Fold each of these.
Amino acid sequence: MHGWNLERERGRLENALMAGGLDFTATYMAVCEFHPLIQRHPGVIHSKTISALERVLEDSGFSSQTQSFSLYKEAADALASILVHGTAGPVADQAIAALKRIVGTATGGPQRASAEALGSLPISIRSPKIKENTIGDIPSVRWQEILEDNGITACDAPAVIGRSLVVTIDRENRLVIKLASVENPAQSIYGEAVWMEHLCSGGYAFPVRFNIPVAIKIDGSYLFRLKETPVSMCKARELDPQYYAIGFIAHKDYFTYPNDHGTKRRLTAEEFTEVMSRNACLLGKLASLGMIHSAPIPLFHNRVQRNRRADHGLYEWPRGGRLDRWLDSCCYPN
């Protein structure tokens, strides 16, 4: 197709979508025609194309249609195609800005379609290189020795929270001794301490408050074995019988959860909004740096069927669906 014909075809589709008045089928067909044009001739796309596709996503007139999501998905995918098949520049910037705007302001099908389109874009994020040294001789230590070796004066008796021993050391901080379990063995909690050290010393800047715990060492090792616990740990589930542990200094809010039902610990509506917004921001910021939190991943997989399905139990929803073990995941939403 000659350049003049390409311009005319693009203009025809843009004008049809911008003018409005098309029924659902005609709108869908017009949006679908943009795809081969974008994929084969990305250079012909310009600012008005973005506006026409964004108008489809902003138009709520088709939201009651049974197949409305198909239309929104086609429009959002067309915008994403501009980013994939085009070149960097003002048009690409406008396309991604349009998708972000819809995600931030729309609801329902347009928002979901735009979010999925953004999520489908290729990324070049590289995870940081974290060196976890081979675990050698693991030192054994008593509770009182941990305090003395780190110059810590406990302000109260140690409390058991989950499988951690927690003691207050000043108005803002707590000492936490986290023990390994059958589900999270020694190597796993050792990795947590290594990540703490990396985040504290990696020179990262975060846009919101982020109280990163500071790992402590016993005889030069993040991982150690607690000779005995200062209080009974019978409530902790399936602890490693060797009492392998890591220790760290955490902010007093470390064990504060946004869904705590206790009257004295319940958050106000404003506090709840701040907590959820801040943590969503941190989750996204860390992901953009190549640090993906693994805890949410099992939620989106059917663990019972993961060995019997080609997708390893991955849930794919044509509409809203369930999460695996969602109620358990709500117990400690930190």
Note: The beta strands are 140-141, 159-161, 164-168, 173-179, 214-216, 224-226, 244-251.
Amino acid sequence: MKNLTGILRAVLAVVVVAVAIPAGAAAPEKIFSVNMTPPNVNAGPGKLLTATIKNETPNGNSSINSFTLIAPSGYAITAYGPLPSGTFAAIGTTGGLSSISVTNLSPVKPNKSFTLALTVTVPSGSASSCTAATSTWEAQAWTGSSLSGDDFRLLNPPDTAASRTTTATPTCNYSLTGLPSAIPAGTSGTVSVTLKNEGPAGSPVLNKLALTAPT
């Protein structure tokens, strides 16, 4: 009789637990964001950028334990900053683009973030457009510590305020030729000058020019 009573109590406990869990309840979707800073950088090698990987999952135990950050076309990740003890990183390629994979992270729990310092070669942009170029970084994240396990979905603006874009602004130099060495006082006429862009391919177009006549 005692054994029967014990069995009934156990069954009742299971029924109570089952009722306490809402039917169809599911864990929150695993989501994350990437924020690249600074948003504007001059073209060239050895530029310093910071990537902040944030676990945007609202609650639960869905931790990010590894991720891959993928640079825009033309960019090259050349080095990275110090990592916490036990965390590893490797620079390589993903889909033909420069990337860095970070593994064995200390779990990045919901609403927490991980910051990665990068040294990057930034392209000069298009010679035909001769303007600053804005490019978008991509990323992948997993629950496993070795680029495996459940995937996280990467949020895209305007889903999140975090920005994944970097605007490359090339340094630009101009030369001005054709100015006469001397102009007789009291004369008037037209002076033809040549303005040449001496900057690298992709240097911004000069949209304002001011010439001041000598007194």
Note: The first helix runs from residue 2 to 20.
Amino acid sequence: MPENEKKSEESQPLPLSYPEQPSQTSHSLKIGRKTLEYHVTAGTMPFKNPENAEIEAHIFYVAYTLDTPEGNPKRPLMFSFNGGPGSSSVWLHLGALGPRRVKMLDHGGMPAPPYELVDNPLTWLEHTDLVFIDPVGTGYSRATKNEHNKKFWGLEGDFKSVGEFIRLYLTQYSRWASPLFLVGESYGTTRAAALAGQLIEKGIAFNGVLLISTILNFQTARFTVGNDLPFLLFLPTYTATAWYHKKLPDDLQQRPLADVLAEVEQWLETDYNIALMKGDRLSDNERSAITQQLSHYTGLSERFIDHSHLRIEIFRFCKELLRNEKRTVGRLDSRFEGIDALPVSEKPDFDPSLTAIMPPYTAMMNQYARADLGFKTDLEYETLSFKVNKEWDWGKNGLPDTSELLRSAFAKNPYMKLFVAQGYYDLATPYYAALYTLHHAGIDPAVRGSIHTAFYEAGHMMYIDVPSLKKLKTDIAGFIGAAL
């Protein structure tokens, strides 16, 4: 296509079909002996160019409130989003926080279709009003022209648009006086940390920020030559995965997981860290000792580890651990097992923990939005947009780090509380990498007591596992109460 024709196509308005007004519905949910009477508003917020007032995008949201559709201004209000980049908010929405949830198998596996949406007595609505935000290009949110996508599909544009949505929502629904909370998952934690630091300049201070499956510093997850951090920080999750699949030696396999991980953490901070720092200066005896211990902690063969130069890349681990059984392990949740076309290939064909959740969540969100919430559109609900992810602008060096903005938020708002939730079987955002980032963020000792961490024997979306969902609700209820 000629360049001038391509530009002309990008500048044409897109055929977007949205209801003229947000839909409003009323529902009830029984929790124990009490009943929650709640209201749901599902609609889009126009995002305007401040210079010419042109609408450049529509941001889809679903808001849950008690008392009235606008909500009680004295009641806590929590804004929620997921990550990707390119993910809609459906995972937190219909997985943990909302009053309805997708019914999965108890450990989080895919049930047989057709899928089902059930009441969620573990909803966070019991403690706070909820607003779920789909960033531009996800869910039903769209730019009005293709050329506008680049304004939203990058770090700064993303922070700006989601932050502006929050400001507009507080204004239009008169919620500036509400206690405010922010919850993000995965890349959504990157966004949440940035917004906590940036929105305070607009007068928006959060009582609490919740980071679920955290990644703030992307250097901790980029397996590249010369960057040894991921090889260190992923090790405890490799151990947890091997422990779950019973691939560790008996002296480790028969101990509680938390005890085993504490031992591994100590070893990686000392011997393993020193060994990687030495590089090719390691003696043969030193290299042999590290190889043996790394094999002991991962369940992988010494030959594989030696041929990997003592550095285990994530996808090679996912393929290698269960290779003899002709199975792979998941990235989002390493409890899950996959079947590849060829057991001899180097990396998995797909992530079995992602394919287990995509159909149920996508189907139920489409059904729920139209049938229950009355939001009628023929647009495709983009549960997870790989186009957004592929075209994302990661900034100058491609390794964003918003931990400084989180530190800044604490410095400017010493009343803010932070909750960090991590799954032991999460290979997308490993728990030890999250802890490493927090320990290196330079947060002042005076406010470190405001940081609370919790760990779950599940993966990235720990809430798909019913015991972890229950624990998460208990932990969050305590956190919100303390933050108020």
Note: DSSP finds 18 helices and 14 strands in the chain.
